[in-house]
Amino acid sequence: MLGLMQNWPLTVDKILDHAKEWHGGREVVSRSVEGPIVRTTYGQIHERAKRLSNALKGLGVQPGDRVATLAWNTGRHIEAWYGIMGIGAVCHTLNPRLFAEQLVYIVNHAEDKVIFSDLTFLPVLAELLPKMPSVQHVIVMSDDEHLKGCPIPGALSFEALVSQHSADCVWGGFDENTAAGLCYTSGTTGNPKGVLYSHRSNFLHTLVTMGVDVLGISAKDTVLPVVPMFHANAWGLALSGPASGAKLVMPGQKLDGASVHELLESEQVTFSAAVPTVWQMLLTHLRETNGKLTSLKRVVIGGSAVPEAIVRGFRDEFGVDVTHAWGMTETSPLGTQATPNAAIAAMSDEDQLRYKLKQGRPPVTIQLALQDDAGADLPHDGTTFGKLKVKGPFVVGEYFRGDGGAILDENGFFDTGDVATLDEHGFMQITDRAKDVIKSGGEWISSIEIENIAAGHPKAALAAVIGVYHPKWDERPLLLVRLKDGQEGTKEEFLAFLEGKIAKWWTPDDVVFVDDIPLGATGKIDKKLIRDRMKDYVLPTAQVREKA
Amino acid sequence: MLGLMQNWPLTVDKILDHAKEWHGGREVVSRSVEGPIVRTTYGQIHERAKRLSNALKGLGVQPGDRVATLAWNTGRHIEAWYGIMGIGAVCHTLNPRLFAEQLVYIVNHAEDKVIFSDLTFLPVLAELLPKMPSVQHVIVMSDDEHLKGCPIPGALSFEALVSQHSADCVWGGFDENTAAGLCYTSGTTGNPKGVLYSHRSNFLHTLVTMGVDVLGISAKDTVLPVVPMFHANAWGLALSGPASGAKLVMPGQKLDGASVHELLESEQVTFSAAVPTVWQMLLTHLRETNGKLTSLKRVVIGGSAVPEAIVRGFRDEFGVDVTHAWGMTETSPLGTQATPNAAIAAMSDEDQLRYKLKQGRPPVTIQLALQDDAGADLPHDGTTFGKLKVKGPFVVGEYFRGDGGAILDENGFFDTGDVATLDEHGFMQITDRAKDVIKSGGEWISSIEIENIAAGHPKAALAAVIGVYHPKWDERPLLLVRLKDGQEGTKEEFLAFLEGKIAKWWTPDDVVFVDDIPLGATGKIDKKLIRDRMKDYVLPTAQVREKA
């Protein structure tokens, strides 16, 4: 027997309808790509997004067509999102930090029909467009004035399209499982793969993240999404902001400490979200300028493990609460958040910190599993490493066009490729990427844990740990260090620095000082490239043993 | 094109699975019907609910069968809910405060196959069972010891069933639109009508109410649901509690001020929800005993309009934040909540109070419309009265067995039967029930607004206002007052008390002092009965005019 409640498909156009109806005058403030601060409202964004929808229809965009955005976080980018998704087209966010060849691959794989582009990216786009045959139109996210000298012939102006079209456009009315968004994974191995979000998955992610123990965005909040809309959908903030009636402050392309601080203060931001490097830049700026944070209350950090010094800095110097979150493109992205439960909240600040540095616990709708290679469940004891798998209504079921084949296990779980622990409070901690974990004598060693500690050495600028072939142990850890400018270091002092901080058998078999530790498009250490560079390297311990 | 995210049906068994997996040791504390305080955990509740599922299957309960509960808020009641819903049967909550004939009507209309009953209700149930032919089994929510002398032959003991059955039972696996719960409206006109909730609607209601601007239950909270699970599902707290990992404190049958206060303090409750009368009793008790509230932070009040004195009392004497909420059985129930937006939060406490006394604004997924009789939208100016209509994924689509026919308008909205205003901040205020609004000379007068003010007269115990026939104005207001014991009053002093507090033309044409103002099963004034009693009454103003 079926229930008799209303049929109300979860389509994201209803989120902006809600913002217009109940928070229509609430501001969305952007640092525009042209320079000035631009102020608009949810009411105006709703109307302009509808006009864009008509413009897209006029350009021949049909339901299911992919329409890409190559853009910073601005009000116009939000208008593009809803204008695309409202008519059943698929909003494909492009990461401008990708290498040119990856951008070309992705646009061709998605068969994007239209690309919205900020002024910033026009020179690159002009160069690549000849290799992107599916793209029929480029819409420049600016006005006619700024289009002068545009290197792309026939490019359209966003503002002209908005002014030329009517706001009379019906949104939604389709199945909630209709595709809404497309985002490609950064692809450290193989080609990038597309995650095709549905209206339902976006809507459910929005509702879950609005929970008080997740992002908990309120109508009282002023939210600054530093995390880009092209990077795992700005953790959904362009959806949860309007859904909650929060004021949004969009930082455009300026993400340096001074620019972020200026917006935090001038707009009296209460909540922000970004990767650790952004917060490190902000802390450095604040310390150098004796800056204050007069309104900021909460900061969510994700994208990579949060350094303890950032949590302490915000807490002790600025009274700002930092919460660590984990997710990936494949999880829409929020999977866990290190919000204390009652037992942890009752601990001292120092004890709480141990949990705040973990990736945290899953909200309802996210199922996590910790398993060994054979698929057997491992204990939640905080020390046993295992494969982290995830299941839920906003977790990927398969990649776009079936890339990578069947990606769920027999119980419907997606293997994140992360290696993690789970503790007695259900707090998950990533210890490594599965492909980076070092398998030594049948036991696992976390490369990330060692490199995080080594990076804390006063002489180190960056540190990386990889597993290197060893005839007896299969693999042993090798530590690579890029020293700070002007510093000199020895293997012995780095190994001494690690002593007592890691298990003795985790001690790297060697330390190599390098001029460069390469980073990928999302700012993470590119271990694949490091392994390539070190492929002829032989451990001294391996040589000795072979001689023996 | 459809998205490629996982297929993860929103069935409520996953909520208790989540609680077991991530908050398994979190306590659920009950004041048992037998007397003692009983402590259990989500882990244990999960296991016992699974055992109950097997017991129900053993009794022949099939998917879609209705299984009723006649019970107070306890851990066992939660076990019954999940045990029933997990196997696709329908949990039908019976309101024991209904008249016997209504209970019989409802059980027969639902064709309940099994009834779970607390010890309290066995004598009444024993009397009514012969008139309930569909009921095959009664499960007494206690142990064998307490079953001795049970007036129902063949009644089963809850504890015996739990101990006799295995916890090995598969839950869920069905369509998320499967019926999960059934609750009948109080039915002040005509027969009670059944609202048939689905797993999807329950799950979405849970996610929405977990939002920081709605109930906002956190894993750090200790929640005392005073509002009964048989009264609009305890506002979903038996779902949002486990979904968030909050500790639950279930008050059983003792809802007086002293008993509620004892639990609030002994269990260090942080959040509670109830109708105004419960809070009035608590405030009275606290003042009489010089009691303190050392942990309580937030209280949500709904069910009927919240008196200003309660909000002020909690705020000024106890530092507790009171939030007003509105909903109905047909909305699962939460429809609006008076959580301040940024503009209201910036006001003085006194200015905020004007908004806190309203029913509040809708969360995303709830659409409200304010319309005149012809279905035209009315302005959101805070003064224009109109019909309040509602639409959303946890709003009723049709009543059980089609009672009342098609109940949605051409745009899919359900008419709440309430008359309300909406202001510039989107805050809704109920001014009357549509059938109680007084239509005088083509304009509407709110009976509730007048009676709320009149009830504030120091001599008044209760006040009610109804519309009475008038030859010129169609209807004019009549004020009925039940005086406090030992008081005497005059028409003139009550009209003088209203002066300046309501529009002059709203002034009742007469005041009648009565010994009894009848209340219905949910504690609201029964105006239908009052109108019946007053049907031969003629207004003095009408008589004068007829003579003239």
Structural summary, described in words:
2 copies of one chain form a homodimer. The mean pLDDT of chain A is 94. In chain A, the strands form 5 sheets. Chain A has an 8-stranded mixed beta sheet, sandwiched between helices. In chain A, strands 7-6-5-3-4-8-9 form a 7-stranded mixed beta sheet, with helices on both faces. In chain A, helix 2 (42-58) crosses helix 3, helix 2 (42-58) crosses helix 7 and helix 10 packs across helix 11. By secondary structure, chain A is of the alpha/beta class. The longest helix of chain A is centred in the N-terminal third of the chain and has 17 residues, at 42-58. The first copy, chain A, starts with 12 loop residues before the first helix and ends with a helix. Chains A and B meet through helix 1, strand 9 and helix 8 of A and helix 1, strand 9 and helix 8 of B.
Key descriptive features of the protein:
548 residues, alpha/beta, 8-stranded mixed beta sheet, GMP Synthetase, Chain A, domain 3, Rossmann fold, 7-stranded mixed beta sheet
Taking the alpha carbons of the first and last residues of chain A, their distance comes to 75 Å
User: Any guess at the CATH architecture of the domain at 8-25 and 36-198 and 236-246 in chain A?
Assistant: 3-Layer(aba) Sandwich
Strand order of the largest sheet of chain A: 2-1-11-10-12-13-14-15
Which stretches of chain A are poorly predicted, pLDDT < 50 over at least 5 residues?
none
Q: What is the CATH first-level class name of the domain at 8-25 and 36-198 and 236-246 in chain A? A: Alpha Beta
Number of strands of chain A: 24
Profile the largest sheet of chain A: 8 strands, mixed
